[in-house]
Amino acid sequence: MNTVEKQLLNEPKRIVQNVITAVIVIVFLMWSLTAVDLSNFTSNGVDIAKNILHGIVTPNTDLLFTFNTNGVPYLLLETMAIAFLGTIVGAILAIPLAFLSASNIVPKPIAFIIRLLLIFVRTIPAIVYGLMFIRVTGPGPFAGVLTMALTSIGMLSKLFVDIIEDLEVNILESLESIGCTTFEKIRYGIIPQLSAMFLSVAIYRFDMNLRDAAILGLVGAGGIGAPLIFAMNGYKWSEVGSILIGLMVLILLIEFFSNKIRNKIVRG
Amino acid sequence: MNMLKAKSITLPNGKIVPFKRSKAPWIILALLICFYYSVQITGFDLQILTKRIGQFWVIIGDMIPPNWNYLNKLWQPLFDTIKMSLLGSLLGSVFALPLAYFASSNIGKNQFVVTATKFILSLLRTLPTLVAALIATFIFGIGTMAGTVAIFLFTIAYVGKLLYEQIENADLKAFEAMQSMGHSTFSAFRYAIMPQIMPNYLSNSIFCFEGNVRYAAILGYVGAGGIGLLLNESLGWRNYANVGMILLLLAVAVFIIENASEYLRKKLL
């Protein structure tokens, strides 16, 4: 027996562990398979799938390149405006909440209560907020902005808290040792640490908000979702195709730029 | 324009160090312009907000206390939602592996296949889950199957992207050594790369499942089964006590799953 074979035999035996894991996964799979219900699947489905594919490869170019308020470009602009405004409002409101739930800034009980509140804010799906805000402002993009702001607060304040809790305190001490005042400590010790990361997180959230804003239209909260669902319910697949193509191009573009900008911000 | 002028400091040894010119004023200006036009487009109106925001609290007030009698009817849809996301995430993660294999530029030798696979993955990722679910309801009929398909597609795209990034960053030394010993690309991948990416792959899949439960909860809105169906119904009838119950149950379920997934992922890494 040579060294290689000895080494091979030394490999830890994990048969029992692997079998247990496999059994657990298979049990879960079986359990979840019970939810599959194909009784509503008809041969129609195949035809519809063909129509959808056909519509997507032959989009309605009139709709795609019209620059009035019904065209895809304007709807995309509206979606972007909703996401942008929602992100800004959400980010601004998230900053004080984040400081209030950072356990190295405020007493533990207060931080805990605010955190619990934020967990609840985060769990409620965007669509539910959308439906609630529609009762407040009436259908339209305004409701979408409020929804985006509220969902952004939930996630942004959580990420902001992580950043605040990772603050380098050494810098503050060295600033104090050279005689800086409290204001100077905040201006030169804290803000430069936080601003880049906060901005990066906010841009990331804008990226996410854009995707969410695209579906908020399904409940009538403005943006491109409403025309999309109308086109689908009317089986106008070429319109669906042009809207989806516009949406995909926009999301890919924004993702590309947001990644670039965030890399630049974080690496300095 | 003193604010925009670049300043410089002269060091004791005579060297002049210029300050970097700050771009902040330009960025703020651009943001303000975007802000102004966004307000115009969306019709953002603070007056309406302050006048009508009371409505929002009224709805919240109606949700409390939640209707506990409704709880008995919720278990089945809740489990449907969890099953939907479990099946979709499980199958999606499994199918993501071969796709990621073809999409990694350091393993795949054929540039065309790599680019095409990457392109398909990013297209799938841009398709909002709710829209995918809506399309799926047209094909598979109303029910949990449509939701499963939507989650399956999203999981492939999400896990696939993270996975191919990981494969591209993996250490290739062992892989190349095995290839030079005569392993095929596939078997070298299996024994040299897989052990490296496995913990992260599983962790990402579990994380994706966690997110999918949240998504699955709203898929019912377009008829793709699960608890969203009841949510939509209760919202439609403005029965906010029921909505409150659903949201509470959902929050508890998501909280449990989140903690379980965090525990599992910590063990993996």
Order of helices and strands of chain B: EEHHHHHHHHHH
Alpha-carbon distance between the two ends of chain B: 53 Å
Overall, the morphology of chain A is extended
CATH architectural category of the largest domain in chain B: Orthogonal Bundle
From the alpha-carbon coordinates, what is the Rg of chain B to the nearest angstrom? 26 Å
Integer-rounded radius of gyration of chain A: 26 Å
Average pLDDT, all residues of chain B: 85
CATH uppermost class of the largest domain in chain A: Mainly Alpha
> What is the CATH fold-level name of the largest domain in chain B?
MetI-like fold
How are the SSEs placed, and which strands pair?
The complex is a heterodimer of chains A (268) and B (269).
Chain A: H1 3-9, H2 15-33, H3 44-57, H4 61-64, H5 72-100, H6 108-123, H7 126-137, H8 141-165, H9 170-177, H10 182-216, H11 225-233, H12 237-267
Chain B: E1 8-10, E2 16-18, H1 24-42, H2 46-63, H3 71-103, H4 111-126, H5 129-140, H6 144-169, H7 173-180, H8 185-219, H9 227-236, H10 240-268
Antiparallel strand pairs in B: 1-2
Helix pairs in contact in B: 2-10, 3-4, 3-6, 3-8, 3-9, 4-6, 5-6, 6-8, 7-8, 8-9, 8-10, 9-10
How does this model look, in words?
- The complex is a heterodimer of chains A (268) and B (269).
- Chain A is 78% helix and 0% strand.
- Chain A is mainly alpha-helical.
- Chain A has two domains: 3-33; 60-267, MetI-like (MetI-like fold).
- The longest helix of chain A has 35 residues, at 182-216.
- The radius of gyration of chain A is 26 Å and the shape is extended.
- The mean pLDDT of chain A is 84.
- Helix content of chain B is 77%, strand content 2%.
- Chain B has helices spanning 24-42, 46-63, 71-103, 111-126, 129-140, 144-169, 173-180, 185-219, 227-236, 240-268, and strands at residues 8-10, 16-18.
- Chain B has a two-stranded antiparallel ribbon with strand order 1-2.
- In chain B, β1 and β2 (16-18) form a beta hairpin.
- In chain B, α3 runs antiparallel to α4 (111-126), α7 packs across α8 and α8 packs parallel to α9.
- Chain B starts with 7 loop residues before the first strand and ends with a helix.
- At the A-B interface, α2, α3, α5, α6 and α7 of A face α1, α2, α3, α4 and α5 of B.
